[in-house]
Design brief:
The protein has 653 residues and is of the alpha+beta class. It is built from 17 helices and 39 strands. The longest helix is centred in the first third of the chain and has 19 residues. The termini are far apart. The chain binds adenosine-5'-diphosphate. The site of adenosine-5'-diphosphate has 19 residues, from strand 9, strand 13 and strand 14.
Length: 653
């Protein structure tokens, strides 16, 4: 029985495996590279071992060292997660030779599916429908070209050893063929040390639908239904969901059975995913099989209410599968959004840096955040830029989708650039809402998605101005620099969505401001707290998360995060026109009480007049010690903002 597992991985998947192991009372050993010494997975595991330098080849891919440590630390099993060593047949073999259980399929099964062309040959023999194309050994460029011509353009050149969309090129005409072949081969050789190519018919608008399968050592196999992973960017998944919407149940059964046929053809054990392209005419074709746990496995966990890592451990223990096919069913709908450290406004280039501030949505039975990062961590150039996964569940697709959007809106990730705002726009884009899915979705709807950036609503603009104005409020909500006799008038500028906005804000009282948004005047009160501000208007009270560093103020609004560069804020100057002893009404309101009378001596900060506005009372205090020269109002009077109420004369020295 497995009592101790070494997790040969990092980041969110290492943490996710540790979580299940802990629940099952299994001890865990984390491994890490020097740059990951303080990482979450290291903190969560019972024991942790430093493998070496940051480069994966020196740490997470160092098979000899990992096996040595597994033996030294007396572990029963190694979980490879995904990526790194998870589909390395040699590593699975070495584990076996050293009596350490590899939590995954046999080395032979990994090998069989390791090459896309060999996999297609096996599937062909097992009568699993294939994407039409050439997957033989002949690699002569002229021969491959003829194959492309015979099947008709467009075709897709694919690296047999490929993964992560690398070594893949679409070819739309004869003229493009040779240069595409050369560049696909070059990329494949660089990434995988192999440039064997397949030529496939390129389906222009298919859906990517994959089946989660599980097999044990007793000849049992089940499929845990499908995931629709059609939302991709450059052949890489961005948002996944389960079940696939508008997916006829007879196709579900046929695809599930085809996937199991594929698994049985290679005596598969453990968790696996059989990927298919589902064409517009209802036909589906085997694409490849991934012999590991997939990044997107949590959506399956949500709709089946099963823990797939637990299932993997059960199978690795040699036990039968926990459930039979008839005991499995689909409940509700789940989405996963992959959160990447990348810049959607700059060609999605990976972004590195320190996570200065991280707020994740509130976790519940319906909202799950799988992440390996925490505030203070450094996102480095060494590893995958995916920093977190948000997974949500709802009774149906619409409910799950609004929870997805809502939860994305609650994320705050400052310090690096992320794709969160992009995910919000993507999730809100109309064809996606209508479940019009296809693998070319992002390419086809690119303009639409980018237009989706919602214009700021008045209350969001108020929120932005509120947070800027709140710069004047110290933590104790006391005003710095505000004087009762001034209506502080400031011009502000901020940049949002690459546009610069200028506004005038009047500070009426310590925490009370007035501004004009789209020609309508708004008065709002600001309460500033540690990590959020509350904006109170007469008919709403909205709280926004914010974070501030030397350079920027970040504010979380519905369409994502607004970053206001402090340098771009023009703090303007206070309106000095009123004379020092003039006490003016900070806003339109009613005089509740006049606390002093003419010729009365008053002390600095003594309350002179109380006025009421927006159902709140505001005390107007003496800016200095002196004598009331004139009081122009009485209780019950209605006054206008800026109206002179009282004049104070300073004490003669
Ligand atoms: P990788 O292993 O690099 O991820 P896959 O074979 O899984 O490559 O394909 C990745 C994606 O590329 C698929 O999800 C699909 O969107 C697209 N794709 C692959 N083959 C085809 C094809 N023949 N026609 C159209 N799109 C394809």
């Amino acid at each position: 029985m497995i009592n101790k597992i070494l997790i040969a991985n990092r980041g969110e998947i290492a943490c996710r495996i540790i979580r299940t192991a802990a629940r099952l009372n299994i001890k865990t050993v984390a491994v890490y590279s020097e740059v990951d010494a303080n990482a979450l997975h290291v903190q969560m595991a019972d024991e942790a071992i430093c493998l070496g330098e940051a480069a994966a080849s020196k740490s997470y891919l160092n098979t000899a060292l990992i096996i040595e440590k597994a033996i030294q630390y007396n572990v029963d099993a190694i979980h490879p997660g995904y990526g790194f060593l998870s589909e390395n047949a040699e590593f699975a073999q070495v584990c076996q030779e050293n009596n350490v259980t590899f939590i995954g399929p046999s080395s032979e099964a990994i090998q069989a599916m390791g090459s896309k062309s060999a996999a297609k040959t096996i599937m062909e023999a097992a009568n699993v429908p294939l994407v039409p194309g050439y997957h033989g050994n002949e690699q002569n460029p002229g021969f491959l070209h003829k194959q492309a011509q015979a099947m008709g353009y467009p075709v897709l050149l694919k690296a047999a050893a490929g993964g992560g969309g690398k070594g893949m090129r679409q070819v739309w005409s004869d003229e493009e063929f040779h240069s595409a072949l050369i560049s696909a081969k070059r990329e494949s050789l660089n990434s995988f040390g192999d440039d064997h190519m397949l030529v496939e018919k390129y389906l222009t608008q298919p859906r990517h639908i994959e089946i989660q399968i599980f097999c044990d050592n007793h000849g049992n196999g089940v499929y845990l239904f499908e995931r629709d992973c059609s939302i991709q960017r450059r052949h890489q998944k961005v948002i996944e969901e389960a079940p696939a919407p508008n997916f006829p149940s007879n196709v579900r059964t046929a695809m599930g059975e085809a996937a199991l046929k594929a698994a049985h053809a290679i005596n598969y054990t453990g968790a696996g995913t059989v990927e298919f392209l589902y064409d517009t005419d209802g036909s589906f074709y085997f694409m490849e099989m991934n012999t590991r746990l997939q990044v997107e496995h949590p959506v399956t966990e949500f709709i089946t209410q099963e823990d797939l890592v637990e299932w993997q451990i059960i199978v690795a223990n040699g036990l039968p599968l926990p459930k039979s096919q008839t005991q499995l069913s689909i409940s509700g709908h789940a989405f996963e959004a992959r959160i990447y450290a990348e810049d959607p406004n700059n060609e999605f280039l990976p972004s590195t840096g320190k996570i200065e501030h991280l707020i994740t949505p509130k976790i519940s039975p319906f909202v799950r955040v799988d992440t390996g990062i925490q505030t203070g961590d450094e996102v480095s150039i060494f590893y995958d830029p995916m920093v977190a996964k948000l997974i949500v569940w709802g009774e149906d697709r619409n409910k799950a989708l609004s929870l997805l959007i809502n939860s994305l809106q609650q994320f705050m990730l400052c310090g690096i650039t992320s794709n969160i705002d992009y995910l919000i726009k993507l999730a809100q884009s109309e064809p996606f809402v209508n479940a019009e899915l296809s693998t070319d979705y992002i390419e086809r709807h690119n303009k639409l998605i980018n237009l989706e950036k919602a214009p700021l609503l008045p209350e969001q603009q108020i929120a932005i101005l509120g947070i800027i104005s709140a710069q004047n409020i110290s933590e104790t909500n006391e005003l710095s620099g505000y004087r009762v006799n001034h209506v502080v008038n400031k011009a502000y500028e901020y940049t949002y969505n690459q546009e610069t906005f200028s506004f005038e804000v009047q500070q009426l009282a310590p925490c009370l401001f007035q501004t004009k948004v789209s020609k309508v005047s708004y008065t709002f009160e600001v309460e500033k707290h540690d990590s959020h501000i509350t904006i109170i208007t007469p008919d709403s009270k909205l709280t926004y998360a914010y974070y501030e560093n030397n350079k920027c103020i970040y504010l979380q609004i519905q369409s994502g995060m607004v970053c206001i560069e402090k340098a771009s804020i023009d703090f303007g100057t206070a309106d000095e026109s009123a004379s020092a002893g003039d006490v003016v009404a900070p806003m339109n309101g009613n005089v509740v009480k006049v606390m002093v009378s003419q010729n009365e001596k008053v002390k600095k900060d003594q309350v002179l007049i109380i006025i009421e506005a927006m159902k709140m009372e505001h005390s107007l205090k003496a800016p200095f010690s002196g004598v009331v020269k004139e009081c122009r109002v009485n209780a019950g009077d209605t006054v206008e903002g800026n109206e002179l109420l009282l004049t104070l004369l300073a004490n003669e020295q």
